[in-house]
Amino acid sequence: MHIPDNYLSPATCGTLVAAMAPVWTVSVLKVKAQVKKRHETLPMLGIAASLAFLIMMFNLPIPGGTTAHAVGGTLLAVLIGPWAACLALTVTLLLQALLFGDGGILAFGANAFNMAFIMPFVGYACYRIGHHYHHDKLGLAVGAYLGINLAALVAGIELGLQPLLAHTANGTPLYCPYGLNVAVPAMLLAHLLVAGWVEVLFSLFVFQFVQKVAPTNLYQTPVKTHQRPWVYLLAGLAVLSPLGLLASNTAWGEWSPQELKQQLVQQHLGTHVPQGMQHGFQFDALFSDYAIGGLPVSVGYVLSAATALIIFLLLIRGLQRGTDTTK
Amino acid sequence: MLLKLANLCYDYPNTKGLVDLNLSINAGEFICLMGPNGSGKSTLLRILSGLATPNRGQYWFHDQLITAAYLADAQHRQRLHQQIGMVFQNTDVQLFNTSVAEEVAFGPRQLGLSAAAVEQRVTDCLALTACTTLRDRVPYQLSGGEKKRVALASVLALNPDVLLLDEPLNGLTIAAQQQMLTLLQRLRAAGKTIIMASHNFQQVQAVGQRFIIFNSAHQIAADVSADDLHRQPERQAQLMTL
Amino acid sequence: MAPTQPNKLPNWLTEPEPPLESASKATFFQRNQRHLRQLLTKLAQPTPVIQPTRWPIAAHINLIRLLIMVLLIAIINNLALLWCLGLILAGQLLWLPPQQLRTFVKSWLISSLVALIIVLPSYWLTGPATLLFFGCKTSLILANAQYYRLTTTFNDLLVGLKTLRCPDILIMTLAIAITYLRMLGQYLLLTLEALDLRTVASTKHPYQLIGALFGNLYLKSYAYALELYAAMEARGFNGHYVRAPQRRSHWRDYLSLSPDLVALILLILWGN
What we know:
The structure holds three protein chains of three kinds. Chain A is an all-alpha fold. Chain A is built from eleven helices and two strands, in the order ααββααααααααα. Chain A has a single domain, classed as Arp2/3 complex 21 kDa subunit ARPC3 (Orthogonal Bundle), CATH 1.10.1760. In chain A, strands 1-2 form a two-stranded antiparallel sheet. In chain A, β1 and β2 form a beta hairpin. The two termini of chain A are 38 Å apart. Chain B has a single domain, classed as P-loop containing nucleotide triphosphate hydrolases (Rossmann fold, 3-Layer(aba) Sandwich). Helices cover 39% and strands 24% of the residues of chain B. Chain B has a six-stranded mixed β-sheet with strand order 6-7-8-3-9-10, with helices on both faces. In chain B, strands 2-1-4-5 form a four-stranded antiparallel β-sheet, covered by helices on one side. Chain C is extended and about 90 Å long. By secondary structure, chain C is mainly alpha-helical. Chains in contact: A-B, A-C, B-C. At the A-C interface, α2, β1, α4, α7 and α11 of A face α2, α3, α5, α6 and α7 of C.
C-alpha cells in the first residue's frame, strides 16, 4: 500500500501533509495525556514503530503458495491506543521512506494519511463499537477489514485523481497514469479479496493471544474528561482537510481557459486546453489557491507544503513549552 | 559415530564464530562445552541443531552430511529437528503458547499420535521436569527458572535422540539445578546424547563425562574426559575462573 | 523443582522415535528468517558511508537538498531540465568509491525496473510518451533517494532533523525506533528459529502461530518500554533529547544547495 514517489503530484502530497498536520498535533497532545497515566507510553512510541516495521515486513502465507503483508494499523490502535498508533506508524513510514526506500519521500504525507490515520482510527472506531456490545473480536475483525480497505480505497482515489489533476495539454498524465477507473478497482480488489482477510486473521490471532496471556497490556480507553473546544476544532479540520485533495482543481479551475492556455504555451507544453479542464471544479477548500500573488503554480505548491509543515512544527513547539513530558 | 565435525569454520558477518573444529561424538555421551562468553559454545549448538550451516568444513549426523542444500528440503529439516532438540539460553523465545500444557503438546501433536498418546506425553514430560503444578499457567507469566523447565519439557515431548542445552542451569535454584542434572543423567542412561554449554564449571563438574573447552580464539583448547580432568588440578582451577 | 519428580523414564522416551512421513511446504517461516537476517545484517553494519573530506556538507543541508531535488524532479516537465538534474546527480556519483558505485547502480536498476513494470500497462492506455517520461522521472527520484541513503548514516539523519528544529519527541522516538528495530528483529528471529526447531511436520494453523509470535513480540516490546522508561528516568530524562554535536553551517553548505536553487529559479523563470 506504500505509494512511491512520482505517483502523486506535489500538490496532492502537500495537501495530504497539511491534512495530517492537525491529526499529528492532536495525537501528540493525546499521547502526552496518556503518558501521564502510563509513563512507558513515551518509549513505547518508538518501540511500537519498530514493531510496526516488523509487522509490515513479515510475509504471511496465503492460499496458492504466495505471500502477503499485513499493515497492523488497527491492531496497533487496539494495543497501544489510536493516538499512539498514529504517531508510531508515522515514524515507521518515515523510517521506511528515508532509510529503506519503501514508499515515497514526497508521498510520505499521503502514506501517513492512509496508513497512520485512516486505518488505525477507522479500525479502532469499529473495535470500540464491538467492545460496547461485548463483541471485541468481531469489532476488531470488522475494524481491521474496513480499516485496510478504506485506506486502500483512499489510496486508490489519490492515485486515480492524478490523471484528472495533473496532465499535459494533450491529456498525457504527469504522475500516476491510471485513472480512477483503473486505480480504485486495482487497489480495492486486491485488498477486498486477499489483503483485507490477511489483516483480519493476523489482527485477530495476535489480539487473542495478548488478551489471553496479558490482558492488562491492552490499551485502556481513558475515562471521558472535559475536553477543550480547540480539540474539536483540530479534529474537525482533520476530517475536512481531505477536501483539500481537490484544492488543486480549484487552483486550476479558477483560471479562465484562456489564461490556462496562455500559461501552457509559455511552458512549451501544448496549445490547446485539455478537455477535462474546460470546466473547472468549484470547491471552497482550505488552500483554495495555489497560485499565490501571481507566483507560478509550482512555487505555490512548494509554499503550501512548506506552510503546512511549519504550521505543524510551530504548533508542536508552542504546545511543548510549559508542559513537562515526563511527569 | 553419531556426530562428526571436520575442519569446521563459521564466520559471523564481522567476527569469527568457530575456527577449524574437529570433533566426534558418540551416542549416549554427556558432553559439557566450556569456555568464556563468546568463545563459540552457542555457535556450535546452532550448527549442531541445523539453525546455521558452516562456512567451511563438514558436519555429519548419522553419516549424513548436513549442508544448507540438505536442510532446504523441508522433510530433511523436520527429521533433523525431531532427532535433535534444543533448549535456548533465553527460553522466552521458545515459549509461545497460551498454556504450559499447550506448550508441551505442541511438538507431539505434529507426530501423528492419538490424542491420548499426546496427553500421555504431556503428563509424563511435566512430571519429569516437575512442572505438573504449572500445567494451566500461562508460560509468559512464569519465572525464569520455571520457563527453563517448561522449555525442557516441551523439547523432551518430541523424544529427540540428542539434547542440546545452552546454559540450562542459569536462573534455577540449587535444588532445581540438582534435579535438572539428575534428569539429564537419567536421559543419558536411557541412550540420549546430552550436549550442554555452560561457563560454570562448579555446576556441571559432577555430571559431565567429557569436557570440550573453548578458548577465546574460537578454537577447541582441550577435549578431555572427566577422569583425565580429575588428574589435572591446574586445568580444573582454570575452569573455575571462567 | 518440586520433589514429585518420578524416578523412571516413560517407555516412549527410551525408544527412538519412528521417522515421520510428511511433505510440507511451510517455506514462509524460512523466507521470513532470511528477510530478518538481511535486515539485521543491514542494521548491524550499514554499508560504510562515505564522508567526503574535501567537501563535507552539514546533515540538515543534505536533507533539504534531497527534498528540493525530489520536489524539483516531480514538478519539472521539461526533458532538458530533468537532464540537468540527472547530470548534477551523476556528478555527485563521481565521488563515490567504485564499490559503492556498483552497489548504487545495482539497487537503483532493480528498483527502477520494479517501478517500470508497474507503469508498463499504461503503455496501452496513454502511449509511449507517458511511459518514457514517467519512467525517467521515477528512476531519477529513486536514484536521488538511493544516493541519500548511501551517503547518510542514521545518526546524520537525526542530527539533520535536530538542526531543522524538529520536535525532541520525534527525534527521540526515531532514535528509539531504530535501536529497538534491531532488538525486536533479533528477538523475532530467535523466536522463529525456536519455532522452526520444534516444527517436525507441516503447520496446520500458520496464523495461530503467527498470532502467537507477534503477540509475544508485542509483550516483549511492552517489557522493553517499561525497562527503557525506568532507564531513562534513572538517567534523569526530562523530555529533552540530548543535543548531538553540531557542525556550524559553512558557506559551502549553502553553496552545495546552489545547483538545486538555480534549477528552481530557472524553473520559475521558465514557468513565467
